[in-house]
């Protein structure tokens, strides 16, 4: 996963251990007198998306949970990219805000964190450029 905190500069969130892309579609009801008692809905409703991310606290990384929480508190948005590196593979990119964040500090383990990015507009599928040799 990468974030664009400075325009044109993508930085890896190396301390992340997992991320999950969630895409939802609203399906407004479209029931008529001819529906015969069955629910019907429109198939192309409004879409939304979020990304859930988990990680370990590592203050030596280029982007830390503290940096991301600072963006959240300041009300700033950013771009994110969920990417594979293989040429020809699909990745997803879009503008986000941070919806929720948390830091967990267990007595006998590593400090962990989680956050949820909420999409702001379209999620764009793209293809990793380049050909393998």
Characterize the largest beta sheet: strand count, sense, and whether it forms a barrel: 8 strands, antiparallel
Q: What is the 3D form?
A: globular
Radius of gyration: 19 Å
SSE pattern, N- to C-terminal: EEEEHEEEE
Q: Strand pairing plus helix content: what structural class?
A: mainly beta
Give the domain tally: 1
Low-confidence stretches are none
Q: Number of helical segments?
A: 1
Termini separation (Å)? 25 Å
Helix content: under 10%
- What multimeric state do the chains show? single chain
Give the overall pLDDT as a whole number.
Answer: 90
Explain the overall architecture.
The protein is mainly beta. It has one domain. The protein is built from one helix and eight strands. The protein has one helix at residues 65-74, and strands at 2-6, 9-12, 16-25, 47-56, 78-82, 90-104, 112-119, 124-127. Strands 1, 2, 3, 4, 5, 6, 7 and 8 form an eight-stranded antiparallel beta sheet that branches. The chain is globular and about 65 Å long. The two termini are 25 Å apart. The mean pLDDT is 90.
């Amino acid at each position: 996963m990468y974030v664009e905190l400075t325009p044109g500069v993508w930085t890896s969130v190396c301390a992340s251990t997992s991320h999950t892309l969630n895409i939802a579609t609203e399906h407004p009801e479209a029931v008529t007198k001819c529906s015969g008692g069955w629910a019907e809905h429109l198939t192309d409703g409004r879409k939304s998306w979020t990304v859930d991310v988990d990680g370990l606290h590592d203050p030596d990384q280029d982007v830390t949970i503290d940096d991301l929480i600072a963006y959240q508190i300041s009300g700033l948005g950013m771009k994110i990219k969920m990417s594979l590196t293989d040429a020809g593979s699909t990745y997803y990119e879009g503008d986000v805000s941070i919806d929720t964040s948390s830091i967990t500090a267990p007595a006998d383990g590593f400090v962990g964190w989680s956050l949820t990015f909420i999409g702001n507009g379209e999620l764009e599928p793209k293809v990793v450029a380049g050909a393998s040799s």
